Automatic annotation (TrEMBL):
Name this polypeptide is given: Morc S5 domain-containing protein
GO terms classed as biological process: chromatin organization; DNA repair; positive regulation of defense response; regulatory ncRNA-mediated gene silencing
Morc S5 domain mapped to chain residues: 356-500
Predominant cellular place of this UniProt entry's protein: nucleus
Any Pfam family the entry gives: HATPase_c_3
Stretches for region Disordered: 1-23
Similarity remark: Belongs to the MORC ATPase protein family.
Keyword annotations: ATP-binding, Chromatin regulator, Coiled coil, DNA damage, DNA repair, Endonuclease, Hydrolase, Nuclease, Nucleotide-binding, Nucleus, RNA-mediated gene silencing
GO cellular component: nucleus
GO MF term list: ATP binding; ATP hydrolysis activity; endonuclease activity
Amino acid sequence: MEGLISPAVKKPKLEPKEEAPDLGFMNTRKESCISAAGQDLPEDFLEPLEEPSLPVFVPNTSTPITSQLQSMASAELNRHGCRQFWKAGDFDGKGFPVPGSVAGGIDHVRVHPRFLHSNATSHKWALGAIAELLDNALDEVNNGATFVNVDMIRNPQSNGPVLLIEDDGGGMNPDSMRGCMSLGYSAKSKRANTIGQYGNGFKTSTMRLGGDVIVFSRNHAGGSSTQSIGMLSYTFLRDTSQEDIIVPMIDYEIKPFGLKKLVRSTLDDWNHNLETITKWSPYHTETELLRQFTGMKHQGTKIIIYNLWEDDQGQLELDFESDPYDIQVRGANRDEKKILMAKRFPNSRHYLTYRHSLRSYVSILYLRLAPGFRIILRGLEIEHHNLANDLMFAQEQTYRPHGGPEYLQKDKQMVAVVTIGFVKDAKEHIDVQGFNVYHKNRLIKPFWRIWNSASSHGRGIIGVLEANFVEPAHDKQGFERTVVLGRLEARLLQMQKNYWNTNCHRVGYFNAKKKRTPKLLYPPKGFMLEPGFENRAVTRMNYKLDEDPSVLAKSNLSTNGTSFITHEAVIPDHLLGDASSRQVMEIQMNKSLLLIQQPEEEPSSVCMDDLGAESLTREDGENKQLKAKVLDLEKKVYEIKGCVEILTKERDSLRMQLEIEFKQRAFEDEELRKRLK
């Protein structure tokens, strides 16, 4: 078996093999990510463990190795431990005592299996873990990948659901497979256009989704083709009480006559790895394992995650049943109210559904997709969506982090173009807002709510930007709290507030703090506007320009529809007769006065201040008159109602009297007839 922490031993020993001929169906492609990047690994990193350092294979003098393996595998996968992720780390692991590996007198650090669980807790959100695996597939575009497929298939042993993620990228050779299964080794950190960089995403994401994962990968590079199988099984490590992380892996070399076992140490070790994989994976024979490469061309990778975690109610955390073309999550991330709202407000559906729907989340996960690359979810391709298309009244603003000019010139990525606007459903006053911050094309902060106002301020504003100058956290669901991030946050908050103050009225909100531009419906008192639209002149009334040109107050006005905006005004002090006129002209000189052109047949000489006071006084008087009229009308209505009631009573009284008189006359007529007979 191969271990995550391996001691230094001799070079791998391979069986004698013939020269691999050039296969017709295997055209030379780009080398795999790991080999092409030329990652710097220790010379002894990929070497096999010494026999004494493998606890599961330490032979007992009285018991054959095969019997020891069978006794370790006698327990079923789900018999021990907890199936809930947040409780799965509670086991002691008191099994086979293993001394620390020593090479050259220096002890090697050991890694307990519990670390796999504690390391995976960095993912609080299951869909974020799936996104990590999609990132790995998207990075393979450089190696010819054209698709990544995410699906649910059945476990051939238990018929339970397992998660499948496969791509047709460059695949992994045996060395790359061991680097993938190890902690902290990544060739992508040396590449500028890749998302992964920490060498930890595969371990954290797979262990967050399920207890076990098995990987099938085929690689063709350098004229040779290989295929490898590796298993990282938390169930195996826990149920056999291991105290070190042991990862069984087997490799094959593809020959014209078939497959040839690629032995790195001894054939017995290779067989032991195979036996462990078949006992603890869903595929119990070597034939079933090799069948998983069916349909895979000359390169590609298939990841199968099984023993998926359950929630507190004993149901699978991943929901495969609600939508046959989606994978959703149960629990607090699922809000039925938001699901109903998403149907009513289609432009806001991503904000309302991305927390529980993988299809919704992945559609906005990348700012751009490589041409021809497809993401397929349960047989149906995911349609890429740009959140900027959901905006109206959109604006673009540029943000550049604080720093010296030399610093900014060295790094051209130290700039972000922020697209900000109202979501198209904002007129419905739906509570949707936040900035979507991408890093190297990957969505890190979806709908980041920066302005937490107690009122409706900021509601409906969405922003989209790519900030490559801030560092994402290891789970890629947030950024490291740095000074640069703090400055970005403060600037985005200011952008949102400015945009709100300027545009909130366009979607039906009222901004009480907005300063109104002073307007004049008439020229100031004692002044008039000369005819014409350009080069207007403001003069005192009854002054003639030819008689006294020195009194001219020149004002440059430019037309704008039916209005003209004052750009410059030069007013001699002796022309200003009173304080109100002076105030008006100072407003003009500050370039903040908007003059509305009025019909010539309605001249007037009312000061703006006088006009405002007169308007308020007139409105107050009219209001008082209207209130008085309303009171009078209400009084009259009350009086009329009283009259109606009196008349109604009189009518009823007269009707009763008439009925009595009618009956009396009828009785008298009857008596008179009887007498006549």
